[in-house]
């Protein structure tokens, strides 16, 4: 099927136009089996389109196309590859509103506060990595004066990238942009819940890139993701998702002895000291909990430790801020908070809320459910702030991936640092204080890969991002990630005697 990348204003029509396709070797194609599955708008429960249901045959076609394309792609000068990736970023920026509307439609994330922002960062990530082609350089090694010894960076080959549904555009860009600039070709497997906008991005980019450099498949994990990880021509796997699935991916990659990057989630602590700028910390909690995304973020600050001197005021201010947020149609510019992604996730989050209540926690429900009859089947859920909850209660200990924050009262700094580090996760953490010594001490002791003081920024280009412990392996979004994860170093020795 030919590619049509004219900017679209109607996300419903675009979803239909994209329905039933993978993108392989520069062409929109149906699944080998001919099978599809429904893509559902979580704000209404209505089917908005179909995704191609990929299997091992589709993986074979996509990987072979990528392997064939990589032969010529890796021979392009690195800066030329970078220019093409930069052009992709420029083109994607022109489609930011279109992509924002489509991602809001299929994920339920509010257009103004979340989806349009994600589309902008998607473009920025390509622009950032596109400018790094000249950094793919090696070293001169003083091994022996009679021998010229150098190292060079070479691409690994075909990269298999598996992405989740919560911020699919950003997380895809963090994988494919550095991989492409480094000389690799890519096969992306999208999340079942959010395949259409990823397909649209691939379609737009394939108007610029040579055929086969960037291929996209949709499907289910065992039938499509599994064969992608196991394919003998896939030389590297980059995965973002749950710890359970990450372990499966890691085992499969280990059997083949290929490198893997894993970003697996978190249970991020936020520590608010008694000398903190309270209003600033409250805004940090709103941003950090990703309430506008219904808490569906691996970096969500879902464990908030507040000094007893400011605890009650902090809770009251956070509650007032979330109460003022509007929950409604994700495509409405007035909406602050959208929906949960799927019925399964909705039930999971509700289960955690009930478990917290049974454990003795006080559940403070915030904001208000939309009253529009057209949204009565939507997966809208009031954000919940738990107080008086024990650290071992399920909502306080386990990753929920929903709008549920647990606020704990503390008195002793040493004790709260120890408590913050008890989690099996170690993705992100923040400390809020005016005292420089406390801030520096906390940044050294908090067991997380992404630590901030008096702010709670989301992932940005050029900020090395990744966790420790069960939160994963490797870093993304930086020059380091391009060099360490998408190239290998070759040592060359020339004997001049």
UniProtKB/TrEMBL annotation:
Positions of the catalytic residues = 263
Q: Which UniProt keywords apply?
A: Oxidoreductase
The UniProt entry, under PANTHER family, shows: ALDEHYDE DEHYDROGENASE-RELATED (PTHR11699)
Q: What is this protein called?
A: Aldehyde dehydrogenase family protein
Q: Which SUPFAM superfamilies would you find in this protein's record?
A: ALDH-like
Q: Say if the entry is tagged with keyword Oxidoreductase.
A: yes
Short name of one Pfam family for this protein?
Aldedh
Species, as recorded: Roseospira marina
Q: Which residues form the Aldehyde dehydrogenase domain?
A: 31-492
Q: What are the protein's GO molecular function terms?
A: oxidoreductase activity, acting on the aldehyde or oxo group of donors, NAD or NADP as acceptor
Give the family this protein belongs to, as stated in its UniProt record: Belongs to the aldehyde dehydrogenase family.
UniProt xrefs under InterPro entries: Ald_DH/histidinol_DH, Ald_DH_C, Ald_DH_CS_CYS, Ald_DH_CS_GLU, Ald_DH_N, Aldehyde_DH_dom
User: From which domain of life does this come?
Assistant: Bacteria
